Amino acid sequence: MKRAQSIIGRKMRTLRRIPPRTLALLPCAWVLLGLARIAILTVQFRRIAPLLGTRADLDYRPPRLADALDQRALRIGQVVRLAARYSVWNANCFPQALCAALLLRCARVPHIVYFGVRKGSEGQIEAHAWVVAGLRAVTGGGGHARFAVVGAFARP
Question: What's the whole-model pTM score?
C-alpha cells in the first residue's frame, strides 16, 4: 500500500511539472495516437499519405520557423512523446509521426514527415519515420541520421 502511494505521489509531482499548455494537449495526442495506430493497421498507406502533406523531394528542408511556431513544434513533440510513453498500444515512430503531423497541421506549423530505411545488424531492413519542423526534430529525431530517406511529405 505504501509503495502504491509513493508511486502515485511521484506521478503527481511529475504531472505538476508539465506546463499547462502541454498538459491540455495530452488527451488529444493520446487519442490521435490510438487512431493513428488503428489507421496504420487497417488502411492502405496511399490513403494515409494525403494526411501527411504533399510528396516532397527527398532533400527538401522546411523553412526556419519564427520563435512562436518553434515553441509550438517543441510543445507538440513533447506531448506526442509523453502520450506514446503512456499508451497501451504500440506507439512507435510511425504512429508518433502521423499524430505529430496532424497536430502540427492544426497548429499551422510548417513541417515535413520523413521515412527512411537502413540495413540492420543482422541484415534485415529497418524502417523509421520522423517529423521535422524548421530546425527541430519534433518526433523520431534520435538516430534518424543513420537512415536513408526514401520518402518525404511536406506541409508548408
Answer: 0.85
